Amino acid sequence: MLANETKVELKDVIERVSAAVEANELESLKALVLSLNPAELAHVLEAIPNDSRSLVFDLVPDEFDGEVLLEMGEVAASELAESLDAQTLQGATQDMDAADVVELLDVLPDESVEDLLQGMDAQRRARIQATLSYADETAGRLMQDAVNIRPEVTVETVLRYMRLLDDIPPDTVNLMVIDRKGVFMGLVSIINLMRSEPEEVISDIMRSDVKTLHPDDSEQEVAMLFETHDLIVAPVIDDNDIFLGRVVVDDVVDVIREQGEHAFLGQAGLDDEEDLFGPTLPSARRRAVWMGLNLLTALFAAWVIGLFEVALDKIVALAILMPVVASMGGIAGTQTLTLTVRGLALGQIGRSNATKLLNKELGIGFINGCLWASVVGLITWLWFNDASIGLVIAIAMVVNMVVAASMGILVPLFLKKINLDPALSGAVVVTTVTDVVGFMSFLGLATIFLL
After folding, report:
1. What is the spatial distance between Cα 403 and Cα 401, in angstroms, rounded to a whole number?
2. Which residue has the higher pLDDT, 298 or 408?
């Protein structure tokens, strides 16, 4: 089955799908589509041009439509979802967990969301709306249904109850133990249940020392709890210990992947839902904002260079060496920025340790600054046969690398404080600062000591 193939083999499948679309070989295309699972279908759809996606998506079995959309990026999924009617969406989401339906609603057009909710029975609609009431990117949005049992019943009663259940939620490896008021008491693993004697009472075999989540916990806090304690499931309870649902490791893996993509793409000013083959104009519009911001910072750096036009006219070596100072500062700042953004995402940096981290990075910046300033200063002296230029660039490099280290800490902390995304905004700010400080320190010192 293709579901078990490696990424290299899936790449071949994409080539075969593209060739079948190009040749309009619908039978071959349908056979390929039916051999893929929803995650693989989503991967294939995102890897083919936008104008071919509808043809392939029409061949996806109706029961997979919702899952395929869920696995796709937001922009690509939204465009495909607009072609689906309410009846098709109802069928596609019928067997999906409430958390997955809510995630899918985020990519659907408003009119489709309204139609989908109206077509649900009252109980399911209430469950979906309850999940929607929690803030985005919180444990409340990740909650799934669970099998609940009472602490006073016997193992035999629970096993008989499980056999009678028509619909057991996916990834059920633990049963949640709650009392008659809905208060969470603990959990029992399926394995432990099967190993216990039929007459044993659930309260005697359940685990009560369970790590729990609050519905308002952020996705970062959820991921950290799972990573730190090697969890596969975590109950979600409110302030009164009332059981609300559970978060499973499958959803946490998705969160970690999305956070990684966000940090990686954010460094280039790209949204983590950027569609590889999306329409040209919307994609250009989204990127234009970031490019405009970078243009403003570049013009500012150019203006700073222009302030030292006289020095550049008289000493050509300064123009040749300017990029060295800016580049070394940029690298130092980016290294510190990357570590800081990662630390903030993992909750490792706070008010109590930020100062110590700043001092450490300043020390690293100073040591590396002195080391490489000595190397560059010596190379400059030998290159231009002028020790004074070598000394100026050495001092400028030390200054810039120390400033870069401090900005790599302070900029993301400040952006986090004012509720801006450090992963998306930090790189351009730090780069601008290191460029400007590098140019000003190098050209300023040259103006003072060489002219």
Report:
1. 5
2. 408
Q: Which has more confidence, 370 or 310?
A: 370
Token pair for 7? 């990424």
Cβ neighbours around 59 below 10 Å, total: 14
Under the banding of pLDDT at 50, 70 and 90, the label for residue 394 is very high
Looking at the fold, whether 161 and 231 belong to one and the same domain comes out as: yes
272 part of a folded domain: no
Return d(Cα 139, Cα 231) in angstroms, integer: 15
pLDDT at 144: 87
List, in sequence order, every residue forming a beta bridge with 174; answer none if it has no partner: 189
Give the N- to C-terminal CA distance of the chain in Å, as an integer: 74
Q: Are residues 446 and 300 in the same domain?
A: yes
**Tally of domains in the chain:** 3
Of 211, 237, 266, the residue at which a domain comes to its end is 266
| Closest of 302, 296, 300, 373 to residue 332, by C-alpha | 373
Same domain, residue pair 190 and 338: no
| Residue 26: strand, helix, or coil | helix
Please tell me the predicted confidence (pLDDT) of residue 3: 45
In DSSP terms, 164 is beta-bridged to none
User: Domain range holding 49?
Assistant: 2-137
Decide if 147 contacts 168 (C-beta within 8 A).
yes
Please check whether residue 188 is in contact with residue 206, taking contact to mean a CB–CB distance below 8 angstroms. yes
How much is the pLDDT for 53? Answer: 83
* Of 352, 365, 174, 143, nearest in space to 238 by CA: 143
Select from 144, 109, 116 the least CA-distant residue to 130: 144
- CATH code, 130: 1.25.60.10
For residues 347-359, give the mean pLDDT.
85
Question: Is residue 98 located within the same domain as residue 209?
Answer: no
CA 107 to mean position of chain CA atoms: 17
Q: Which of 402, 153, 137 is nearest to 252 (CA)?
A: 137
Q: How confident is the model at residue 7 (pLDDT cuts 50, 70, 90)?
A: very low
Identity (one letter) of the amino acid at 293?
L
Indicate whether 125 and 161 sit together in one domain: no
Residue 98: pLDDT over 80: no
Closest CA to 202 of 175, 181, 182, 180: 175
Q: What is the pLDDT of residues 12-37, one digit of tens each?
A: 888 888 888 888 888 888 888 888 88
- In 3-state terms, what secondary structure has residue 197? coil
Distance separating alpha carbons of residues 117 and 428, to the nearest angstrom? 42
